[in-house]
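User: Reviewer 2 asked us to show a designed sequence for the structure in our supplementary figure. I'm pasting the structure tokens here. Could you produce the per-position amino acids so we can include them in the response letter?
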């Protein structure tokens, strides 16, 4: 039986959402109010060399209410429900609304064309989401409880933010925060990003700086991206000394053969984890699904590579056809960055094939197949070597 407290809590959540939706008619109270949203079911199947395979359907529903009560104030409230089909055996017996969450809830003040500030729960994504991203692929996505201010001047944008990751006063546990500055300078078709992030946590004894550069743009028909970052400070009581390097070169093939690009990423690893210095690069709050294969074997770095870092060489092809059709094929070769003491640093090769069709502005369908050849190196770091497959069919409807 549900307790009265939990029942009352779910009623309060439902009542809050109902009140927001009731306020939607534009012009009510002199305010400009708009409603938008998304529903996105995704059928997934996974097989692995060891353990059971599975097939399931997940779904995300988002409702976004945006209000402009008076200039220069903007308010956004975005609710979402994320679930796996069949997890509630009987909806008649569920009063908790435990899948309902606040994805974003903030107000923004824009005092001029150059300066704005945003306070509340919000998505934060910088650059290509290499280190901080919203993880749009995941049904739940990522958002932060944060304060962010943005300065925009000709050819330069600077963001400064502070996000509270956990609060000791809530449960007596860890108190952690992420602070940072991200600047983008533009000149023609060239851009240079500079950034610095501070991750601090107590009592875990973490005070780690991540700083770097990212250059991206076009040189004629050649698209390029070159980036690097270093990590120093302390991570969980140990001295941190990690680094990463990434590059991308892309070129349009003669029509109608699409675009071809070459990617290379190198994340430093640590072959001596007990010497008091951690040399593995940590990808912080990245959208790793975009970079290290769609089968998601390497979502959590350094955990998923045994702390030995990662090298990824990838060849990617994409073709945008008529009527909103597109097809892509990515081939990855994954290796450990630090293979000392192991028989091999060869982890896996992966092929990702993606098909998408934008039927209209509201409806888009995407399907994909990923096939992974897991090698001996996976077993040497405590993972399962062998064949992995991942397939999905996803429908996205927006309004």
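Assistant: Here is a per-position design you can include in the supplement:
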């Amino acid at each position: 039986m549900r307790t009265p407290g939990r029942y009352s809590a779910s009623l309060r959540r439902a009542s809050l959402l109902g009140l927001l939706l009731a306020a939607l008619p534009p012009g009510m109270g002199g305010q400009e109010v708009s409603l938008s949203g998304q529903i996105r079911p995704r059928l997934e199947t996974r097989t692995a060399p060891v353990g059971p395979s599975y097939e399931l359907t997940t779904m995300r529903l988002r409702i976004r209410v945006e209000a402009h009560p008076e200039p220069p104030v903007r308010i956004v409230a975005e609710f979402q429900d994320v679930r796996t089909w069949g997890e509630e055996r009987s909806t008649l017996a569920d009063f908790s609304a435990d899948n309902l969450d606040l994805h974003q809830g903030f107000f923004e003040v824009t005092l001029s064309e150059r300066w704005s500030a945003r306070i509340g729960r919000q998505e934060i994504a910088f650059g290509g989401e290499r280190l901080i991203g919203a993880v749009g692929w995941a049904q739940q996505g990522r958002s932060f409880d944060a304060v962010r201010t943005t300065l925009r001047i000709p050819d330069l944008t600077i963001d400064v933010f502070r996000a509270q990751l956990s609060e000791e006063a809530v449960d007596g546990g860890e108190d952690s925060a992420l602070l940072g500055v991200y600047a983008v300078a533009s000149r023609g078709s060239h851009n240079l990003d500079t950034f610095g992030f501070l991750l601090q946590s107590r009592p875990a004894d973490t005070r780690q700086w991540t700083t770097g550069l990212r250059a991206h743009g076009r040189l004629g028909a050649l698209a390029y991206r070159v980036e690097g970052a270093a990590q120093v400070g302390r991570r969980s009581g140990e001295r941190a000394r990690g680094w990463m390097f990434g590059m991308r070169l892309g070129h349009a093939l003669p029509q109608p053969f699409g675009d071809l690009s070459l990617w290379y990423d190198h994340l430093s690893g640590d072959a001596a984890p007990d010497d008091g210095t951690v040399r593995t690069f940590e990808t912080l709050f990245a959208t790793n699904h975009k970079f290290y294969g769609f089968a998601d074997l390497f979502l959590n770095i350094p955990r998923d590579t045994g702390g030995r870092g990662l090298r990824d060489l990838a060849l990617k092809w994409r073709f945008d056809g008529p009527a909103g059709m597109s097809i892509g094929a990515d081939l990855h070769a994954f290796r450990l960055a630090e293979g000392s003491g192991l028989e091999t640093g060869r982890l896996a090769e992966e092929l990702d094939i993606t098909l998408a069709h934008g039927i209209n502005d509201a409806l888009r369908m995407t399907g994909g197949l990923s096939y992974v050849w897991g090698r001996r190196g996976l077993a040497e770091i405590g993972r399962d070597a062998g064949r992995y497959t991942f397939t999905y069919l996803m429908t996205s409807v927006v309004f």
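For the response letter, you might also mention the following. The radius of gyration is 23 Å. Helices lie at 4-22, 168-171, 376-380.
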